[in-house]
C-alpha cells in the first residue's frame, strides 16, 4: 500500500523550508486553480509484511489519537495557507488506514470539510487490510461517506499469503469482499501481487479468476519488487527462497491483461484495470501530474511549483505539529523542464498517454519541439506510438516502462 506510485522516485535534495525556497526562487504562493487531491497517510500496521519497505510502523497504536490531532492541525494549516482550495478526492493510504478507529477517521474528514471546499461528488477512498475488517466497521465507514474501498488482498492462496507475511487468509479476503458489498460499497478495488518466488502461472491464474469472480469494479496488479532490507530479500539472499523470475512475471502480466480485457475491464494504467467510469480519480490526479496535497507522516505534496515531504517518524511528526512547527523536512522547487519530464513519465503510464493539445495548453510548447527526437527514437524501438494526437506506450512499452521513463528524467 502507500502512495500509489511508489516506483516514481521524487528527488528532494533541498532541506530548506518551502517558504524560504519560494522566496529564493520568487515562486508565488498562489491558490491552486485546479482542484486538489488530498492524500492522508496512516502509518500504522498491526504487523510488518515480508516484502514491505513503506513508511509504516507497528506497535504505535497508542499514538493514533495524537496522530489524528496532528493530521487535523496540518489540514487546518493547509486550508489557511492555500485559501481553502477545492478538493475533489480524498485518499486514506498507508500503512493500514482500516486500523484507525471510526471516530478518528471522522475527525479527519470533518477537518477536511472545514478547511477545504470539498466537492459534493468527491471520491473518498480508504485502503483496508482484510484481516482488520468487521461488518460493523464497514457499515460505519460507508455512513461516514467513504465510497471507495481498496482491499489489500494480494493472493487467494494461503501459502502465498503466508510467504508475504500477510495478516489474513484467503477465506478472510473473500469474507471482507462480501461484507463490503453488504455494507453498500459499490466501488471496490482489489490489490493483487504477482511474480512471487516459486509462484506458478497456474497459481496466479487461480488468484485472478477468483478475484474477477467477485466482480470488483477495479483491480490493481503489482509485480513483486524485492526491496533491500526486507525479510523477503534476506531469505532470497540466504538461498532459502529463489528470486522471482522476471520472464514468468511478464507472462503473468500479459495473461492478466488478456483475461481482464475479455472480462470487460479497461487497462487504463500500467498496473490498473477498471470497469468503465470506475477508474480511481485520485490516482488519475497523480498520473496526470496535477496538484495533490499529502498530510501525515512521510506524506509528499506537489503544489504551486513545489514538491515537499513531511517527517517520516510519526512521533516526530506529532511533536512538530504540537509545537506549532512545520512537519515539512524537504522541499524543492520544480522548474518547467522537470515538470514537463514528470508529466511525460507519469502520463505515459496511462492508456490515454500524453495528449499533444493538453501538453501545449499546459506548457505553451509543442510536444514535437520538446521531445520530438526522443519520441521518434522510442517509436523506432516499438516502445511508444505517436500519432500526432497523443504519445502512448505500446504493449511492449508497458512491459519495459523503465526503458521509456529514463528518457524523461
Ligand atoms: S499492510 Fe503490509 S504491505 Fe501494507 S503497509 Fe502494512 S506492512 Fe506494508
Could you characterize what this model shows?
The chain is an alpha/beta fold. It has two domains: 270 residues, pyruvate-formate lyase- activating enzyme, CATH 3.80.30; 74 residues, Arc Repressor Mutant, subunit A (Orthogonal Bundle). 41% of the residues lie in helices and 21% in strands. The chain contains 16 helices and 15 strands. The strands form three sheets. The chain has a nine-stranded mixed beta sheet, with helices on both faces. The radius of gyration is 21 Å and the shape is globular. The two termini are 25 Å apart.
Mean pLDDT: 92
The CATH architecture category of the largest domain equals Alpha-Beta Horseshoe
Bound molecules: iron/sulfur cluster
Number of domains: 2
The CATH class designation of the largest domain is Alpha Beta
Distance between the termini: 25 Å
Shape: globular
Largest sheet: 9 strands, mixed
Count of β-strands: 15
Strand order in the largest sheet: 7-8-6-5-4-3-2-1-9
Amino acid at each position: 500500500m502507500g502512495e500509489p506510485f511508489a516506483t516514481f522516485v521524487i528527488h528532494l535534495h533541498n532541506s530548506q523550508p518551502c517558504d524560504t525556497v519560494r522566496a529564493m526562487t520568487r515562486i508565488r504562493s498562489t491558490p491552486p486553480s485546479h482542484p486538489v487531491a488530498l492524500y492522508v497517510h496512516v502509518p500504522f500496521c498491526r504487523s510488518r509484511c515480508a516484502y514491505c519497505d513503506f513508511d509504516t510502523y507497528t506497535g504505535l497504536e497508542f499514538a493514533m489519537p495524537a496522530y489524528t490531532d496532528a493530521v487535523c492541525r496540518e489540514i487546518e494549516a493547509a486550508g489557511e495557507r492555500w485559501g481553502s482550495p477545492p478538493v475533489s478526492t480524498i485518499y486514506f493510504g498507508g500503512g493500514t488506514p482500516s486500523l484507525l478507529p471510526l471516530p478518528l477517521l471522522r475527525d479527519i474528514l470533518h477537518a477536511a470539510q472545514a478547511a477545504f471546499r470539498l466537492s459534493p461528488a468527491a471520491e473518498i477512498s480508504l485502503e483496508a487490510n482484510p484481516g482488520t475488517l468487521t461488518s460493523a466497521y464497514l457499515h460505519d465507514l460507508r455512513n461516514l461517506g467513504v465510497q471507495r474501498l481498496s482491499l489489500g488482498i494480494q493472493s487467494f492462496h494461503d501459502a502465498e499469503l503466508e510467504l508475504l507475511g500477510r495478516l489474513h487468509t484467503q477465506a478472510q479476503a473473500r469474507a471482507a469482499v462480501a461484507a463490503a458489498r453488504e455494507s453498500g460499497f459499490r466501488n471496490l478495488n482489489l490489490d493483487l501481487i504477482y511474480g512471487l518466488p516459486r509462484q506458478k502461472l497456474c497459481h496466479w491464474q487461480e488468484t485472478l479468476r477468483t478475484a474477477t469472480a467477485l466482480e470488483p469494479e477495479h483491480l490493481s496488479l503489482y509485480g513483486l519488487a524485492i526491496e533491500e532490507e526486507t525479510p523477503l530479500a534476506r531469505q532470497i539472499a540466504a538461498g532459502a527462497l529463489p528470486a522471482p523470475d522476471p520472464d514468468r512475471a511478464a507472462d503473468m502480466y500479459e495473461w492478466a491483461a488478456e483475461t481482464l480485457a475479455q472480462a470487460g475491464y479497461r487497462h487504463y494504467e500500467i498496473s490498473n484495470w477498471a470497469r468503465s467510469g470506475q477508474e480511481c480519480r485520485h490516482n488519475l490526479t497523480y498520473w496526470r501530474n496535477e496538484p495533490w496535497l499529502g498530510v501525515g507522516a512521510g506524506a509528499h505534496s506537489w503544489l504551486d511549483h513545489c514538491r515537499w515531504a513531511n517527517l517520516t517518524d510519526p512521533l516526530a511528526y506529532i511533536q512538530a505539529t504540537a509545537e506549532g512547527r512545520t512537519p515539512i523536512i524537504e522541499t524543492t522547487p520544480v522548474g518547467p523542464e522537470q515538470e514537463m519530464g514528470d508529466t511525460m513519465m507519469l502520463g505515459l503510464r496511462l492508456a490515454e498517454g500524453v495528449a499533444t493539445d493538453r501538453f501545449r495548453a499546459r506548457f505553451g510548447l509543442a510536444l514535437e519541439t520538446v521531445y520530438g527526437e526522443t519520441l521518434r527514437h522510442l517509436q523506432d524501438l516499438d516502445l511508444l506510438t505517436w500519432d500526432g494526437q497523443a504519445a502512448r506506450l505500446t504493449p511492449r512499452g508497458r512491459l519495459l516502462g523503465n526503458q521509456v521513463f529514463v528518457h524523461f528524467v
